């Protein structure tokens, strides 16, 4: 097998239902697919790692699948973070420039961000992302990049995405046991937004809802920046559990019924439509399709109720000019878009991830949005850092030349 390449990007998505590894590389400036692996998750409970050993074996299996397809060694990854322990908050801070009016530098921006992030938080919370919403230069708001501008006072409005420190450490330890070093952690709702939202939607205001197995993560964008992040404790597995209990069926059979015949809107199902199923005793039985929808619709409405309450709590309910975009494996239930529109009173659409060059068609699915988005996010941040380093080196060379 080929050795590790410096331009390789590998991401790890440990979900409640599936563990996914996706590898891509940059060839002549173009990001392209290299390989992937996906296995059913084990050792998970309610969206969190409950047993490190089994979870690490799943990560190792998915990584080996990706290595086989990519024909290269994988020993480092970017890990996704999501679930009910994710929280976000908005803050602000700034300072008066010491020498009056002068040009704003990268160091000034970092200083303003540091002052905005200097807030008290519980000791078990870890900061995932510091996301500037806007900079304010001499009381002039709406600035996204103040570097190079001239002013006397710089302020920043900042969104801070945090997660449980123990949950994050469990993810890192799990990856380490599987032979992977975690270089960075990325909030999965932001990653999903990276590959599903348009620039216009981010500007007008949009809610990205990533429906996972045991939770659904939200990220709201307004005027091009992140305005709110949160999570609600309902996901696709709750729909399956409801079916299993309501119809007295094994979970695997309930999941299959949900995928093939489920609908979140009762009236969308023909009243006389039926299917034949085999009950756990092995006997054939006739099941009205509307009975499945009658079980699923209340759960869909409950999910959207919690989403609405979360948006109201965050003060962004009125900021969704472009509506709501649903992604994640749990968003594929028929009728979910209709329930979203009726409950949130905004337009809704399905969020399919963009396709990477050479990527298999079956990965163009909402369940892969977080992984594909993490690849795009990691690539973009690497390019940004490289550009900043190049700019700094150029300034240093100019200063050195000027001194002689």
TrEMBL record:
Coiled coil: none
Every SHS2 domain range: 9-196
Primary subcellular site in the record, as a coarse category: membrane
Subcellular localization: Cell membrane
InterPro entries assigned to the protein according to its UniProt record, in alphabetical order: ATPase_NBD, Cell_div_FtsA, FtsA/MreB, SHS2_FtsA
Assigned keywords, A-Z: Cell cycle, Cell division, Cell membrane, Membrane
Domain of life: Bacteria
Alphabetical list of SMART domains matching this protein: FtsA (SM00842)
Membrane-protein topology: Peripheral membrane protein
GO CC, alphabetical: cell division site; cytoplasmic side of plasma membrane
Protein's GO biological process: FtsZ-dependent cytokinesis
Role, per record: Cell division protein that is involved in the assembly of the Z ring. May serve as a membrane anchor for the Z ring.
Family that this chain belongs to: Belongs to the FtsA/MreB family.
Assembly information from the UniProt record: Self-interacts. Interacts with FtsZ.
Annotated HAMAP family: FtsA
This protein's name: Cell division protein FtsA
Species this chain originates from: Candidatus Sulfuritelmatomonas gaucii
